[in-house]
Amino acid sequence: MRTPANPAAALLRGVGVYLLVALTLAFFALPMLWLASAPFDKHPGITVSLPDFTLANFERLWNNPNAVDSLASSLILAGGSAVLVVGLSALAAYALSRVHIRGRDGLLYALLLLSSIVTGTAAMVPIFLLAAELDLVDSYLGVVLVLTGGLLPAAIFILKDFMDTTPRSYEESARVFGASPLRVMKDIVVPVVRPGLATVGVWTVAQVWGNFLIPFLLLRSPDKSPAAVVMYTFYTEGGQPDLALISTFSLLYSLPVVLMFLFVSRRYGFRFHGGIKA
Amino acid sequence: MADITLDRLAKVYPGGVRALHDLDLTVRDGEFFALLGPSGCGKSTLLRTVAGLEAASGGTVRIGARDVTELQPGDRDIAMVFQDYALFPHMTVEENIGYPLKIKKVGRAERAAKARRTAEELGLGHLSERRPGQLSGGQQQRAALARAMACHPQVFLFDEPLSNLDARMRLEARTFLKKLQRELGVTTVFVTHDQAEALAMADRLAVMEGGELRQVGTPTEVFRRPASTFVASFIGSTPMNLLPGRVTGDGTVRVAGGELPVPDEAAPLAEAGEEVVYGIRPEYLSWSDSAADGAVSGTVSVVENLGSAQLVTLEPEDGSSVQVVVPEEHEPAPGTRGWAAPRADRALLYRDGDLLAARAEAGTAAAPLS
């Protein structure tokens, strides 16, 4: 350790560093603080202030026809996508990990690259037209399929890493004892890669929960809109954003995802592979 | 209990690599049989083909009276222990041992009782609730053995069973495995690249090279009378001296500047003037500080201490080198001169890499070289 020549300068520097850290923290913490205080405030503004405590905002939200339904819609979309993504990516990743085909890695990277287009803005028009042709507009199934398609490549990529690190001898051992391929999958592969499946499941739910564009485009009736879309409709008669409703709804909207993260992380623990993070 | 019969067994991998060349082999009922060879010789492929994890490209595999060539691994009534033991990390020791029984739809209570009994037999009783990650290497091996034993197969297959243990544990496990195999009396085939392991454990062994069997026999036969120079150099912890020489007219071979008698069994076949290789193990050369008849002489260049003996490297004038195991009462110093005389009944002659012997002992004949 280097001893500074001047104690006063050292003190000043220490204070400076902490001040900088505190300001940075405050910058990132403010939105959270707002989310914690505004829903309980009679007259929430866009600044953080000590709330004038009330629960009336929750009552108003409860009486809003779309708000509660939209959370259910979100659950359906997120749950449906998670089941499809986890199931399909597990099968695909297992096969890709165990069977060697030419150009496998190239295929994976190409899919990964293109997947951002599917769920992104670039393919909006063709996807809408395709959904219209298939009679999938205004149905949950259509939204779930489009979102699943967009998320699958990344999910396969993450899961393939988990599968690759599972020794083949586990499966061969089970085979020698007479286990069928499906039995091997159920008894050995799935339990061994369970942290990976949990990771992909949580990641899918979080992605779908926060997706605005696809359900906004494909779901036409307001009673089917998920939370991310309904939030967009909270305006006062005067055309101003209804901050009371928005803040209250935001709190309810973020709670399920936070709870899910805590639950899954405690149950399975998270492991991220291949430099991919959620 | 059953024997294993391989008839013209072949394995060609996609891409044309021939891993096994039409092998014929019989492993007798209750035998502890080793497949030995350098890496890439096909020994693991052979084991995996017997297990059914690889499909044979030609020929048949019979276990007992049944032709199992087309059967799935699970229908062959075998158990395999893998090199990494392949214990399932998410199951306890007891669940691991009971897993084969679960597949065979044995009821939960019976399964648990059976698993616990097998664990007890192998000294794992107090560990049955642990997971594989909490066991030492030796305990993992025993758990894997217990799992293989629990389903009472006709045949055990072990893939490099000792290679994941440290050196001291390996010796212990060697004795343990041999004893266990004898007690169970189940036909067992194991794969190893370590010749000492094969010699120590096996009732009989097969030496493989390039997808072919080079020699099949008891450890004693293979050690004393290797059928080819390849087997001779592969077997034995100190490699056999293989010295090029020429047969003379009067029943001797000129080797390393000395004249050594032609071994009796090779005498009728060795023709005067032909080039041969004279094979003698360092253990079968006797050391002398003074000139001796029928011996090679040279200068001592290296002395390696083996504990109860020394391995002396002798350099004759012609530039070759001969290794001799010298008992502890002699202490040759580097730079001095020494003589080494072969034990007559242990000397071997090789012509074109093959043993020259008038009478072929049962079981020692080499597979034809192609």
Automatic annotation (TrEMBL), chain A:
It is a multi-pass membrane protein. It is found in: Cell membrane. GO terms for cellular component: plasma membrane. Its main location: membrane. The chain crosses the membrane at residues 12-34, 71-95, 107-128, 140-159, 192-214, 243-264. GO terms for biological process: transmembrane transport. Keywords: Cell membrane, Membrane, Sugar transport, Transmembrane, Transmembrane helix, Transport. Residues 71-264 form the ABC transmembrane type-1 domain. Gene3D superfamilies: MetI-like. Belongs to the binding-protein-dependent transport system permease family. This is Multiple sugar transport system permease protein. It comes from Streptomyces qinglanensis.
Automatic annotation (TrEMBL), chain B:
One of its GO terms (cellular component) is ATP-binding cassette (ABC) transporter complex, substrate-binding subunit-containing. Residues 121-141 are annotated as: Disordered. Residues 4-235 form the ABC transporter domain. It holds the Pfam family TOBE_2. It comes from Streptomyces qinglanensis. GO terms for molecular function: ABC-type transporter activity; ATP binding; ATP hydrolysis activity. Keywords: ATP-binding, Cell membrane, Membrane, Nucleotide-binding, Sugar transport, Translocase, Transport. It comes from the Bacteria. Gene3D superfamilies: 2.40.50.100, Nucleic acid-binding proteins, P-loop containing nucleotide triphosphate hydrolases. This is ABC-type sugar transport system, ATPase component.
